[in-house]
Give the backbone structure.
Amino acid sequence: MGEPGVDASARRFTWEEIGLRTGRGHPLQERWLVIDRKVYDISQFYRRHPGGSRVISHYAGQDATAQAGWLQHDFGHLSVFSKSKWNHLVHKFVIGHLKGAPASWWNHLHFQHHAKPNCFRKDPDVNMHPLLFALGKTLSVELGMEKKKFMPYNHQHKYFFIIGPPALVPLYFQWYIFYFVVQRRQWVDLAWMLTFYIRFFLTYLPLLGVKGLLGLFLLVRFIESNWFVWVTQMNHIPMHIDYDKNVDWFSTQLQATCNVNQSLFNDWFTGHLNFQIEHHLFPTMPRHNYWKVVPLVKSLCAKHGIEYQCKPLFTAFADIVYSLKDSGQLWLDAYLHK
């Protein structure tokens, strides 16, 4: 056992011993993980992990053999160029200069999402529970039994249309990305972001004036936000959401993701993320190749009795609302139960 790159000793460990080394509590805040049946002590290395300390820490005390192959979307997912440095460089340009957001922020959130999708306190995408929404059957009941009420969750399927799709990007992401880069001193990302705002300002101010400029900016963010929330959450919110149960990597991805039927429109509208299952299983694969591996994934699921969900686009949209309604009702029933 030792840091990555150091030969493991011949000593054998039980899963009980490994499971205690999660970095939380005793013994001595140690972090161990297993890769290919070798135990690694990452107690010091996790802070230097290139994908981020939280990503690798999510597997502390567990088998991390299958989690080492995923990164970001297209350039962020290293699926364009053969060399990682070119993907990272162009990713900074695309997300920073063309969209005005920091690559480090996207990486920080997305790495964790792919590592532990829909695992509460590990996947940042479900951090809206419990402050804004009650998510998942188990978590919603737990929240109700604890008599916690931050919002009227039994109405969350209604106020989702107000604070969800229209508000996420313009009202939350827009200020948080600046807080993120300043708080973490990501000055290179901040410089890339500023080039976007300077270019946007110089291009449209002479044509639209200050009010028109701000109106256009908010309109773009509003449209982007609606598209982003519906397309990304249709694959995840209706699926299993719970604490990390240390389930095998393949099953974790399948229980947290579903697909949307393939069609020319669906492929274009979702950017091939209607193949969300394949995206989670093969995150470095170029998106236009997902359809090729669908038969293989389906056969593997059938062989091991794992559910493979695929549904129409508007059914997937509606399932977001239905799942919020169901979990909100579960919370209310538990909350009112004496």
Notes: DSSP finds 13 helices and four strands in the chain. Confidence is low (pLDDT under 50) at residues 2-6, 66-76. The beta strands are 32-35, 38-41, 259-260, 310-311. The first helix runs from residue 15 to 19.
